[in-house]
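User: Continuing from earlier, I have the next pair ready.

Assistant: Great, send them over.

User: Here they are, in order.

Assistant: Folding the first of the pair now:
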Amino acid sequence: MKTIVKYIRTHLKEDYNTSTYLIFILFLSVFISINHATDLAVNFLSNTINTPLLVVSYFLFFGFAYYATIAIIVFTKSDYSFIKSRGFWFTSIFAILLVSLRLGFLEHYKWIYENTAPEKAFFYIKIATRAMRTLIFSFGILFFYYFFEKYNTNFYGFSTKKLSWKPYFLLLLFVIPVIIIASFQPSFLSQYPSIGYTGNTINKMNALAIYEAVYLLDFISIEWFFRGFLVLSMIKILGSKSILPMVALYVFFHIGKPTGEIIGSIFGGYLLGIISLHSKSIIGGIIIHIGVAFLMDFMAIIQKLDIYYR
């Protein structure tokens, strides 16, 4: 834990600015509050859900999150230097396009509905969607690395040098009580377990085993993108300033989840971003992210044991 505390202290010394952080928190708070009351973001995106414009809608949505935070940093810290960098614009636009494709590409839905039994289509879509999203993030990052950034020797955080495992498992222990309490909330149980109800035509234990493997693998790609690519590819341009824009994008990425989880993504994204920035590794973040995801599903399954596994 001393290592993580040291990372936080070092980062705050380098990055903290009262005006920046206050306006940033206000920005996210207003957005989360409005979305909680009106479902504004979901309604905005749903208008194009069955059209090719869905990717464009996501691009505008995520671009707003990222560049609004950049604007806050620019005006509160009076730092305009990185705005002139072509690398900043190229990398950030590529990243926003990649996350937009991840959520906006739904072409496999129609194929599955047309080529599988209706009672099994929901399960196949869940599996295919998770697999497709993992591939989009993974191949997108690999594409960028191969053509533009081969000098990134730690491969956006896949490094175990000087990695101490203990702090991350201790953090998981601290999170367990929070997850247990959350598991009794209706909003939590409406979202988890993330596999949903697979019906009676598929063996539930087999479905769970297959889905959880794909589901948890997806979290590796999520961590690789947010804490690896968005932070470690931007160090040379933004330095410590790369964390807050990533956090904003990560929060918007959670829209549609329970409000408590969206709020939690602020703190989780910030902490994991700091760890990645200063350790140059995403391995710890992967441990925490996969651990939290598994525990959330596990607690929901226990709560719904009579429905899913009777």
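And the other member of the pair:
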Amino acid sequence: MRLLRIAARVELVSLILLLANLATVHLPAVATLLGPVHGCAYLLVIGSAFAATRGRKPRLLAVVPGVGGLLALRGVAAAGATEPLHEL
């Protein structure tokens, strides 16, 4: 769950920064740096949501770009499905 929380926040912040860069000065260096960060965070959100719960709703919510991780966290909390699939 901790990884999902961190990845969800990184995904949202990186998307906001990418869109702000696009709307303002559009520096290619910013897009070059933040694009892969956002992509990795997005994949981490999906993977950690699948690992954190068996529920279908949080898993589907995690696929929504940008805010999916935060929605998945709410779905996990609402469903009470915080049990992991496997112990680490």
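Worth noting for the second one:
The chain has a mean pLDDT of 88. The helical segments are 2-23, 28-52, 56-62, 68-79.
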